[in-house]
Design brief:
The protein has about 130 residues and is mainly α. It is built from 7 helices and no strands. The protein folds into 2 domains: about 5-80, Orthogonal Bundle (Rna Polymerase Sigma Factor, Chain: A); about 90-125, no CATH class. It is about 75% helix and about 0% strand. The N and C termini lie far apart (about 95 Å). Pfam families: Sigma70_r2. It comes from Xanthomonas arboricola pv. pruni MAFF 301420. InterPro entries: RNA_pol_sigma-70-like (IPR039425), RNA_pol_sigma70_r2 (IPR007627), RNA_pol_sigma_r2 (IPR013325).
């Protein structure tokens, strides 16, 4: 068995034994199931990259938890810094517009108030 195959086998065995850590950390940092799955995958990739440097004299679960937390925190910071795509005004204009402004009866009442007020007549005069 080659060294890389042995490394891969050991990593998979330890990952399966302690996979709950990855899932718990991902669930703690992501509410959306798709984001949670992506974060769990990112954590696993980072664990694999760091595995050759793992000191077998230390507890694997502690090492794994530390890496999982660091990846989750970095992911959270990245999401907070990422610019949010603003919605076009046309897409939200109806939801933020005054619903009474579209009501013809309301428009007539406003026009009548403006016509009866001396202050409004002065501002509306040509």
């Amino acid at each position: 068995m080659s060294l890389e195959t042995d490394l891969h086998t050991r990593f998979n065995a330890l990952l399966q034994q302690h996979r709950g850590i990855v899932l718990k950390v991902a669930a703690s940092y992501c509410w959306n199931p798709d984001d949670r799955a992506e974060l769990a995958q990112d954590i696993t990739v980072q664990l694999w990259r760091a595995f050759p440097g793992y000191d077998a004299g230390r507890r694997f679960s502690t090492w794994m938890y530390r890496i999982a937390l660091n990846v989750a925190i970095s992911d959270l910071r990245g999401r907070n810094r990422a610019p949010q795509d603003p919605l076009p005004l046309e897409a939200v204009a109806d939801s933020i517009a005054d619903p009474l402004a579209r009501d013809p009866a309301h428009a007539q009442q406003v026009a009548a108030l403006h016509a009866s007020s001396p202050t409004c007549r002065r501002w509306n005069a040509p």
